[in-house]
Amino acid sequence: MMAKEAGVFSFSAEEAAEEILKYRQDGWRIFELPKGISSRGAFFEGVRSTLPLDPPLLGNQNWDALADSLWSGLDALTDDMILIVWPDSSDMTKNASDDAEIAINILSELPTSLGNDDITAGNTKKVAIIRLI
């Protein structure tokens, strides 16, 4: 993979360290979710404690509210290159596979939707997600 790419990528910890460094050197704003996310509640809490949300997210039940709040929070940033790192993403896949699939889908939609001129009214962003597996 080449730094500066938008999209969703999966790497081993060693590979991810190199890629994250490339993004950092190229000026991307980097958000790293906490390690050990293995449940729906932990994912919601990790997003709430790490990423910009607009409006603030209450509770751990509504995936649509999470997706909307996360999208709006990232859209409001002045940064136009954003990297989200999810360490140990396989923990949630193993322990809460259905919730992990939803979480991955929400993150996977961000690069396309935030990169769309029509959706963002011209305020597009490059968004990359790195999942450590």
From TrEMBL:
Boundaries of every Barstar (barnase inhibitor) domain copy: 35-117
Gene3D superfamilies: Barstar-like (3.30.370.10)
Pfam families, per database record: Barstar (PF01337)
Domain of life: Bacteria
Family recorded in the similarity comment: Belongs to the barstar family.
Record-given protein name: Barstar (barnase inhibitor) domain-containing protein
Protein species of origin: Allosphingosinicella deserti
